[in-house]
């Protein structure tokens, strides 16, 4: 049986047991993650002025209930998939922590300053923050944790619930890849609210939408 030493937690305890990522094709996890993020980038036209929020349960990717079998290896595979797309398009990423940290988010300090986010003091680890946030914190150049964001788009891997960190109005985007590992995948872009009532006009004289072509209604 494959065994691993668990990540050192806040209490310092170590435990041996079956690796939660045993049987998970990590290369496939990276490929699928990259494909999902590429599709959302195209749908939402994400670029340097945009923020993407990602929630991920590595337990769910491994086919286990959320919060029960976190895997740093799975988290690293997902990180690589997201980074491959982010490097090409330059958008910012916020990685959602687990409920223990009130779903705070790990971002680069540059991102915090760019979007005027509020920093909180905590260092994520697998038992308080989650494996995904832990890997993000370890791999970022200058990581900080912020209390909340208002992201332009989001990816949810494993039904972690990211809606509290999306701008209104969220518009579902259906990925061609519906699962990463065994985790259900959902994602959304956002659009500005339509305001003004029955006399309002929502298109310019040339037919263009003020918010851009990506803001079509698909619901």
From TrEMBL:
InterPro entries: Antibiotic_NAT-like (IPR028345), DUF436 (IPR006340). Pfam families: DUF436. Residues 1-22, 200-219 are annotated as: Disordered. It comes from the Bacteria. Belongs to the UPF0340 family. HAMAP family: UPF0340. This is UPF0340 protein GCM10007043_16800. It comes from Calditerricola satsumensis.
């Amino acid at each position: 049986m494959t065994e691993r030493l668990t990540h050192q937690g806040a209490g310092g305890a170590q435990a041996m047991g079956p690796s939660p990522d045993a049987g998970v094709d990590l290369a496939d996890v990276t490929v699928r993650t990259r494909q999902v993020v590429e599709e959302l980038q195209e749908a939402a036209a994400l670029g340097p002025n945009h923020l993407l929020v990602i929630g991920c349960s590595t337990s769910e990717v491994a086919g286990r209930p959320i919060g029960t079998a976190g895997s740093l290896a799975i988290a690293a595979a997902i990180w690589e998939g997201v980074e491959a797309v982010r490097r090409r398009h330059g958008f910012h990423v916020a990685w959602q922590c687990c409920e223990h940290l009130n779903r705070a988010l790990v971002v680069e300090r540059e991102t915090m300053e760019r979007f005027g986010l509020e920093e909180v003091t905590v260092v994520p680890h697998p038992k308080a923050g989650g494996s995904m946030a832990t890997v993000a914190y370890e791999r970022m150049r200058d990581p900080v944790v912020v209390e909340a964001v208002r992201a332009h788009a989001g990816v949810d891997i494993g039904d972690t619930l990211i809606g509290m960190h999306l701008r209104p109005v969220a518009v579902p985007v259906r990925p061609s890849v519906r699962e990463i590992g065994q985790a259900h995948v959902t994602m959304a872009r956002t659009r500005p609210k339509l305001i003004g009532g029955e006399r309002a006009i929502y298109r310019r004289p040339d037919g263009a939408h003020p918010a851009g072509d990506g803001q079509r209604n698909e619901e």
